[in-house]
Structure formats: structure tokens, C-alpha cells
Amino acid sequence: MVKTQTFDFVILGAGIIGLSVAKTLLQQYPNCRICIIEKEPHIGLHSSGRNSGVLHSGIYYPENTLKAKVCAKGAQLMTDFCHQNDLPIKAYGKVIIPLKQDDDPLLETLHTRGKNNGADVHIIDKTELKHIEPQAYTITGRALHSPQTAVINPKAILNCLVERLSQKAVSFHTNAQQYQVDPQNDCITMNGQHIHYTTLYNCTGLYADHIAKRFKLADEYTILPFKGSYFQLSKKSDLHFNGLIYPVPDLNVPFLGIHTVKDMNGSVYFGPSAIPVLGRENYHGIKGVKASEAIEIGTHLSKQYWFNQQGFRQYAHSELKKSLKSQFLKHAQALVPNLQPKHLEPSQKVGIRAQLVNTKTHQLEMDFIVKRLENTVHVLNAVSPAFTSAFEFSRLIVSEEI
């Protein structure tokens, strides 16, 4: 006999956005029935669990964007959540460094954006930079300082959310590798059971476009995976880092460039790269590459290369070179001149960015994108700073303000 269950809300995907949507729904509808469906056997195996752990301040985003609206507030809510639940958080602070002589106007742009978006940011000179981050180098004599930028433990936050949601009778279905959607009957069928919903939220990250297309939505979008790899600073290194060091980024693309990441234990990493790959789960070697998916992704990457929107061709060339340690080191040394090859060790730290692309305009989408169709909500583009922004972003999603 087929088992049938009915819920007020079904959420596909148990990453930070899916869990945050559930948290927000319970705040607004305390007695609602929620089911979360996750394809993996455990939480945090993909983007959310592989997050850098940096709580961004809202520096990079133009005022009229969703990212600008939710980043600073989201960071504060996430900080409060960590304090309330005794989860680790450290305000290391962050500096953003010009790498070229003509980067100063962009530095001013970031300063203005940060101020407008509610971030605590200051322009500093090279003397102040030397005091804050002795290893950092500014070619123009100036830098941007964000003293409140903090680092958290992403998996600890995910696990805490799961525990809290489970205590409130949220139903979790993990290891749901295959399921069918029936939009006409508001039903998900999986593992021999029917799960009916009043409202469905698609928060599947790397597969959000695939799910949306099952609902006859988002035909003009596809997700392209970009792999972010890191090197770790050797424990034998005599280099010391107080916080995080970032370059002034290329504002035409949604990537921040090679920077330093300092985790909760004080370990320092350099990265990530943002190399186009042929599998949505292609973390290492050819593992995670499927023939049909590789052909689809390869076709879209070829079109991006051909049309060259946002300087994609030059960007791809630059990123592919970073697969070589010598080229990776060159970019890292622009921030930290004293860095030597012996200071960098291979790292297993790696992630995949689920970057949404508009296949009609051939643009990499820069902002969060949410689409609605009848009683379904599809979070199509939730890349950085999605983890930082998750609580405030989810509030806007649930309240239908976006």
C-alpha cells in the first residue's frame, strides 16, 4: 500500500537556504507541518557544508540588489544565532587590497557600497594596513578595512538548525536520490510514498534549475559549476595573519579572486580558484563527471566563451592557469609578497559554486534570483553571500517580498 502524507510546506534541499526557510516558516506559522527532502544521506555535503565560513559585510553589492538588502542584516542575524546557541564565531576582520594602480576608484566604489549597505568599513593607509595585517601589500598605499568581518563554522550551524527543526517536529527525508514531481496534484513521489504539499520551496542549490524546469519554469536559465580549490599555509611557515586579506575584485564577474581564509582553528588557506568544470559534483579529478551532464555543461561553457559576455574568455583563461601551483602562487603573492612556494601545501578543501547563467543573454547572474509559479517558490541563484544572508534572505522569501 502506498503511504500518503500531507504537509503545509515541502522544502527540497537541506542546505542553509532550505533550513533557513523552514526556520522562518515556523516563526511565522508555529503550528505548520513541514517536510524537508534532501537527496544526500547527510546534511552539508555540498555548497553549504563546504562554505568558506566567512560572514560577509555587504561591501561588494550595488544598492538596488537583493544581496545589498540582505547581507549586512543577515550577518547580524547569523552572529546572533551563533551567540544564542553557543556556536563558534570569531571577528577576525578583513582588508581589501588594490592589486593595480588603477584599482583606487574601485576601492572607493566598494567603500561607498559598504557604507550604503550598512557595513562598518574604512579606507586606511599603508601604515594602518601594516599594523592590522603586516604581511599584506597595497600597491596604491591604500586599503579598505572591515573590522567586523567574522568567521563561523558552517557545519556547526547546519547541524544546530537540523536539531532545532527536528525538535519542532519538522520531518526530514534524507537519501532521496530519486523523486518525481506532480505539479497538477501538488505531490512529490519518492521511495514508495506520496508527499502532498500546500506550498513547495525549491532550495536545491546545484540542481535548482533542473527542479524548476520540472515545473515548466526557468527555461532561460542553467547552472554552471565552478570549482573552488585551495592551498593551505604550512604550519612551518613563519608568516602570521591576523585576519582575512582580499583583493579588489573584478566587479564584472561574481567572483572575489584568490584571498586568504582563516578558519576557527587559526589555520590559513589561500583560494578559492573559480575554474569551470564539467560536473555539478566534480570535486576531485574526474569524479562526479557524468557523460550527459558534461556534454550539457560543455555546450553552455562553449557559448559563454564564444559570446564573451563580462569578459568570460579572459576570465576563463586566467582561472584555468590557477590549476598550476606556480600561477596560483603568483596571484597569492600579489597580496602577500613574502609568500614562498614552500609555504603552500595541498589542501582537500574544495567547493563547487552553483553559478546561474542566463542562456539568452549569456550573462553570469550577479544577484540572488527567486522565481514563483502558483504555489511553488524556486531559489535559482543563491551563491555567495547566501550563507551569510540566509536568515534575512529567507524572511523575504517567505513573506513574499521577493
Structure description:
- The protein is an alpha+beta fold.
- It is 31% helix and 27% strand.
- The chain contains ten helices and 21 strands.
- The protein has helices at residues 16-28, 66-84, 104-116, 126-132, 154-167, 208-214, 291-307, 312-321, 325-335, 386-398; strands at residues 3-12, 34-37, 54-55, 89-90, 94-97, 122-125, 142-146, 150-152, 171-173, 180-182, 187-190, 193-202, 221-233, 244-247, 259-262, 268-271, 275-276, 344-358, 363-364, 369-373, 376-381.
- The strands form four sheets. Strands 1, 2, 9, 10, 11, 12, 20 and 21 form an eight-stranded mixed β-sheet that branches. Strands 13, 15, 16, 17, 18 and 19 form a six-stranded antiparallel β-sheet that branches.
- Strand 1, helix 1 (16-28) and strand 2 (34-37) form a beta-alpha-beta unit.
- Helix 1 (16-28) packs parallel to helix 5 (154-167) and helix 2 packs across helix 10 (386-398).
- The longest helix is centred in the N-terminal third of the chain and has 19 residues, at 66-84.
- The protein is globular, with a radius of gyration of 21 Å.
- The two termini are 41 Å apart.
- The model has no long low-confidence stretch (mean pLDDT 96).
